[in-house]
Design a protein that fits this description.
Aldehyde Oxidoreductase, domain 4, 16 helices, 3 domains, binds dioxothiomolybdenum(VI) ion, alpha+beta, about 675 residues, Xanthine dehydrogenase family protein molybdopterin-binding subunit
């Protein structure tokens, strides 16, 4: 079955947020702070107001009304304080985009700057322990005695890794189009991963009842987390439309996205692992250092995968945060698990080397039959089968463990392995199923961010109804549809699908004409088991001894993620995640400008992501995993696990190829030579 929206996408008929045809539309263009910290002394906009087509200028000089408790990243123009370079401090509304941009350039903002601090560094005096980390885990956990475990270890490692600021770069830049009706109701076409939560946040920020706000987002060109929470462009569109008395469009440029749509926090991670002579872990300690802004505490759950992965008598995990003069970090594909597993799985490889043990076998002997930290039994856990199947397909048993000895001309060749994991969660959702003209219509405020969610839901509904997929039509991407959670945390299909199945069952149970469902009660019962997807990643690398260039001729991922709803969509999610992991390993990095604040390399010419030529052979396969303890589909999320572990597998292969251990991502040629 092809993607149900494939034809409208490839023919250009699919409408994205910035493209809705609206009468008398105007445009808002933001003015961004040029200092990283300070106070706005004055906004001089007289010249801008005289420029052609200008309808309004927004700033803290005459602040538009917003709710007192608005999220600090969304409370536009409410304060004279500047929290980071690039923050939106004013905006110009004009009849054309070009006039708005030109007038925005003519707004002069006067600052009283303060000294700023934008650099995450080890030993920063500002580090503190947050109360919880995302989404709501304890910041620190301790089980057993780590020091005692390290004392008795036959081999141990004490290693520190770092990962840089990373930016989500969806193909479709963030955009919003706001339209107020004469009764004061607001319609926002927004590029968002969830119309229901976006509607709620916009309503709360503007101080409106949520019934008076509607968000429409039928097609989204990727998000990777950056569209998972409401971003300032949507609030700006609403405020600007109110000020101008016309519909207003805000379409961010790629440069602006780097400043105001979130990023992955940089991390510094210290791992201490010990094992006995047989490779069984005697201690695991994972301490993650990361940043947030002065506006909001965003505490990424970087050390949490260590609470899930391996059996050990002594386990300590901890998170330390420092509040810097930077934009607030946000969600980026597998927040927490992705950088955390990079460090843990690299350290496991170092431990295998220290023990003289095969890294696949090291992971196998430390497999856990219950969650190591909390002791909950797993609903299913097939990490060992993923490792075994991956090793078989990859040809692992022919591997010579000696590092730095395989040479083909200028190229050093090596292979590496790492494990993957991601939680399998779901959230309450609601759905409506009914008959229209002899076909079945499914309504749910789900989001299709390029993943193929519509198609997956057609399959799920067709299965539940026992009808051909061609007879099912899914309507999503509109907050007026039955309420649904965000496309995030790899929870979309599990959450929406559960509601869709229940609505279809209601339809069949009743008069055959309609059925409604809300899974709030059902989802509340999920807490007695640990539910996670697992995987194993294998990489082959070739490292040029002349240029330091790293090529990755082969990547293989084997995943155990419950029942796979749609093989084509799943493959695309897995290999997309793995490709993004390759980018993290070798290319992606946003530099922080320590002198002026803000970020450097704010476009795709300098922020490098992998292109097709960089990934000649990425293969993803999966086990046929049966798990009756998940949801009606038996599925685990697949959107994020593909990126987890990939960078470690590549880094471990680079060590195998060269004999050198690079502990600071990305592994660029300059670090190799
Ligand atoms: Mo994803 S980073 O959970 O939107």
């Amino acid at each position: 079955m092809n993607r149900v929206e494939g034809r409208v996408k490839v023919t250009g008929l699919a409408t994205y947020a910035a493209e809705y045809p609206v009468e008398a539309v105007a445009y808002a263009y933001p003015v961004q702070s040029l200092v990283a910290k300070g106070r706005i002394a004055g906004v001089h906009d007289a010249a801008a107001r005289e420029m052609p087509g200008v309808l309004a200028v927004l700033s803290c000089e005459d602040p538009p009304r917003l709710a007192e408790d608005a999220d600090a990243e969304l409370a536009l123009f409410q304060s004279r304080d500047v929290a980071y370079r690039g923050q939106i401090v004013a905006a110009v509304v004009a009849g054309t985009y070009e006039n708005a941009r030109a007038a925005a350039a003519a707004v002069r903002v006067e600052y009283d700057p303060d000294d700023h601090d934008v650099a995450l560094r080890s030993g920063h005096p500002g580090f503190y322990r947050p109360d919880v980390v995302n989404p709501d885990y304890p910041a620190d956990t301790v089980k057993g005695d780590v020091e005692a475990g390290l004392d008795v270890a036959a081999a141990s490692v004490d290693v520190t890794y770092s990962t840089p600021v990373l930016h989500n770069n969806p193909m479709e830049p963030h955009a919003a189009l706001a339209v107020w009706d004469p009764e004061g109701r607001l319609l926002v076409y927004d590029s968002t991963q969830g119309t229901s939560p976006d509607r709620d946040t916009i309503a709360r920020t503007l101080g409106l009842p949520r019934e008076d706000v509607r968000v429409v987002s039928r097609h989204v060109g990727g998000g990777f987390g950056s569209k998972g929470s409401t971003r300032p462009h949507a609030v700006l569109a609403a405020l600007a439309a109110r000020a101008a008395g016309r519909p207003v469009k805000v379409a961010l440029t790629r440069h602006q996205m780097f400043d105001v749509t979130g990023y992955r926090t940089p991390t510094i991670q210290r791992l201490r692992l010990g094992a006995d002579a047989g490779g069984r872990l005697t201690a695991v300690e994972h301490v993650a250092y990361e940043q947030s802004s002065t506006l909001i505490e965003f505490a990424e759950q970087t050390a949490t995968p260590a609470r899930v992965m391996y059996a050990t008598p002594a386990l300590r995990t901890a998170h330390r945060l420092v509040r810097l003069d930077v934009a607030t970090p946000s969600w980026m594909r597998a927040p927490g698990e992705c950088p955390g597993m990079y460090a843990l799985e690299s350290a496991m490889d170092e431990l295998a080397c220290a023990l003289g043990m095969d890294p696949v076998e090291l992971r196998v002997v430390n497999d856990a039959d219950a969650e190591p930290e909390g002791g909950l039994p797993f609903s299913s856990r097939n990490l060992v089968m993923c490792l075994r199947e991956g090793a078989r397909r990859f040809g692992w048993r022919h591997r010579d463990p000696e590092p730095g000895v395989r040479r083909e001309g200028e190229w050093l060749v090596g292979t590496g392995v790492a494990a993957s994991t991601y939680p399998a969660r779901r959230r309450p959702a609601s759905a409506f199923a009914f008959v229209r003209d002899g076909d079945y219509v499914i309504q749910v405020a789900a989001a299709d961010i390029g993943t193929g969610a519509r198609t997956a839901l057609v399959r799920i509904a067709a299965d539940a109804l026992g009808v051909p997929p061609g007879q099912v039509h899914v309507e999503l991407g509109d907050s007026d549809l039955p309420e649904a959670p965000v496309a995030g945390g790899s929870m979309g299909t599990a959450s929406w699908g559960s509601a869709v199945v229940r609505a279809c069952e209601e339809l069949k149970r009743g008069d055959g004409k309609e059925g409604r469902a809300d899974t709030t009660g059902e989802v509340g019962n999920d807490a007695r088991l640990a539910r996670h997807a697992f995987g194993a990643q294998f990489a082959e690398v070739r490292v040029s001894s002349v240029t330091g260039e790293i090529r990755v001729p082969r990547l293989l991922g084997v995943f155990a993620a419950g029942r796979i709803v749609d093989p084509e969509l799943a493959r695309s999610q897995f290999i997309g995640g793995m490709t993004m992991g390759l980018g993290m390993a070798l290319m992606e990095e946003t530099l922080t400008d320590e002198e002026f604040g803000g970020f450097l390399r704010r476009d795709l010419a300098q922020y490098h992501v992998p292109a097709c030529a960089d990934v000649p052979h990425v293969e993803a396969v999966w086990l046929d995993e049966q798990d009756g303890e998940l949801n009606p589909m038996g599925s685990k999320g697949i959107g994020e696990i593909g990126i987890v572990g990939t960078a470690a597998a590549i880094g471990n292969a680079v060590h195998h190829a060269t004999g050198h251990r690079l502990r600071d991502l990305p592994m660029t040629p300059v670090k190799i030579l």
